[in-house]
Request: fold
Amino acid sequence: MTVGADQPARSATGGGVARQAHQARRVFRLAFTIATVAALAGCGGDVTATPTLPAPTMAAVAATPTSAPTTAPAPATARTAPPTPFTPTAGPTSPPAATATRSLLPAATATRATTTTHAPLPPAARGFVPILCYHSIRDWEPDDGPQDRPYITPPADFEEQLAYLRDNGYHSVTAEQVYQYYAHGRPLPDKPVMLTFDDNIDNHYTVAMPLLRRYGFTGTFFIMTVTIGNEEFMTEEQLKDLDRQGGDIQLHTWDHQMVTKYTTEEDWQRQLVEPKRQLEALLGHPTPFFSYPFGVYDAASAAQVKAHGYKGAFRLREILDEDADPLFAIPRYIVNAHWTIDQFAAALTGE
Reply:
C-alpha cells in the first residue's frame, strides 16, 4: 500500500475515534519503514520500493515503500554510516519550565544530570547527539506479525538498554536541551542521549516512564492528540502526570498524516496549530517541538512547521531533503526490537 494514502478520516468524537486510532496503529506499524531505509536495512528489512509522495504545493523529495515488509527483520549488524554533520542555526530562547506538583508514581531513584557551565560551544564543537525513537514498550503477543515486532520493545529489553546507559555514564536530555545545544551551543551533560517515544501509547506511562525514572532518566513523548483518552492510548490525566514527573511532552500531529501532504492552511491548522494549543492548554506551558509522522518531510514542509510556531522538528535517520533547516530535521534512530545490546550500543555512536 502507499503509506498514508489509505488512512481513514477520523472524527474527534465518539467510539469511532477509538476504532480508527486502533486501526491507525496497525497502519503505523506496517508503514514505519518510511524514511528509515538505513535503520531497517541494517536489520534485514526490504525497504527499496520508493514511489513519490503526492505533494501538490511542495517539492516532493520524500519517498515511501509501496508495501510493508512481510518477514521479520533478522538481527541487525552494526551500522557503518557515520552521523550526518549538523549545521546549527540561531533560534529563540527556551520556554519557561513547568511547575512541579505531586506525582502519582514512585519517586525516581536518580535525577537528570545538568551541566554547570553555560559558555557557548562554537559550531565546530557541537557533535553528534544520539536520539533514539521507541514505539510500544510491551511483550510480544501472538497476533503481533513480523512487520509489527521491530517496533514493540519488550520491557526486559528496554530495561537492559536503560541499565547499559546508566552503567556507561549516559545522561538523558530533552528536546529543549538538544535544541539549545545545536542552535546556541549551550553545553549538554557528558554522554547525552535523548530517549523519545512516539504515538501516545498507554504503556509509555504505565511501563516506560516508571523504568526511565528507576534508572534516573527522562523521555520525550510525541503525541497524536486525536488518540488522547482512547483505548490503548494515554489520557489527559496521564499526560499531565507524565509532565509533572519530568516527561517532555511534544506534538506528533493530530492524526499522523504526513506533513508533505498538507495543501491548505486548514491542513496546517488542524494538524499542527490546534493540537499544539490543546497540549499547551492541558499542560500549562509551551510545547514547541515536533516529530514528523513516518519521518517524512521536505524543505518546504519544514519551513511551514517553523512558520506555524515551532522551534525545531525531529526526523528519522534518513535525510530526505538537504535543503531543510537543520533545526527542523534533527535525526533520530528507531530502536529495532531485534537489536542485540551491542547493536544498541553502536547506535549511540551513530554507526
